[in-house]
Amino acid sequence: MQNKINQNTDFEVRSLDAMCINESNIQHKWYHNIKYLIIGVLFGIVFVKSEVISWFRIQEMFRLQSFHMYGVIGSAVVVGMVSIWIIKRFNIKTIYGEKIEFHDKKFNKGQIYGGLLFGFGWAITGACPGPLFAQIGTGASVVIVTLLSAIAGTWFYGLWREKLPH
């Protein structure tokens, strides 16, 4: 009986953690992903034009000298809230007809630690994961160090995940 319980542990952890909830089972050809490249490039252009990737704008935000970044982040939060409400209210499915599921997550102290660590890294480097690639694309090659650090941090989290507060 004990072996049967241990076999399902990974599945139970994944379901409780809400990992890969909306993972699609549809297999596509490699060129099917070109649309994501195009959207990513357009999104990067929007980041550059809106000055979201500007180290100076980010520093202004953390020094409470400008509303610009707070306005961008706040409008993104509102758009996200409205989008989720619409998806739930009208039971909207993915473009391929698959159901979109939302699962509640419990609040815990690990989120505070992670948020503080993320915020400190953002303030020090002037970059968060979204704009990293747009910054590199504009020629700010020093941001490659930040990208490599983000990858190392993600690897470190995966390595120590079971021992960290969740």
From TrEMBL:
Keywords: Membrane, Transmembrane, Transmembrane helix
Segments passing through the bilayer: 36-56, 68-87, 112-134, 140-160
Chain segments annotated as coiled-coil in the UniProt record: none
Database matches in Pfam families: DUF6691
Highest taxon in the source lineage: Bacteria
Record-given protein name: Transporter
UniProt cross-references to InterPro entries, sorted A to Z: DUF6691
